[in-house]
Amino acid sequence: MANTSTTPSTICEKYNLTIEQLSAGTHIVLNGTQHCVIVESSSVPGQEYKIIWNSLYKVLQCTVHNGVPCKASANGKQCYHKRVALAVIELEKAQSIREQAEIEATPEYQFEQLFRDLEDALNALDRIAEEANEREKARRDAERYSLPLNGNRPFSLLR
Ligand SMILES: [Zn+2]
Known about the structure:
The chain is an alpha+beta fold. The protein has two domains: about 10-105, no CATH class; about 105-159. Helix content is about 50%, strand content about 15%. It has a four-stranded antiparallel beta sheet with strand order 1-2-3-4. The N and C termini lie far apart (about 80 Å). Bound molecules: zinc ion. Zinc ion binds next to α3.
């Protein structure tokens, strides 16, 4: 799982990759929806493979991005390009978790958070006051309507 201590070197170790292999991978989004990782061939300059997630078969696939398919995939074998794709995504996730943690550590964020907490507290107070008002109104209503019917009418002061 991605965590804050994930670094390129721990990722390389986990996926059995070199830093060069890892750096050949780039996460891109095609047509604004399809996530994939483009991996440059280490043996053929300019040759790129596109690693996609096949949601139907729930497998990663190494497909042609330009030129020809990678030899391993063409022969139905696992290739390291898929590991690069997994590594790139995991590293990205770890980075965004770290960035979020950094944002949360800034005074601006903490102030904003404080302000939000304060707002929540004020809202809660408003609700309490409102409830108290309603209770008071109900009490007054009850008082008004339970007066004995001996001539003391409720609005005697308005006579
Ligand atoms: Zn491949």
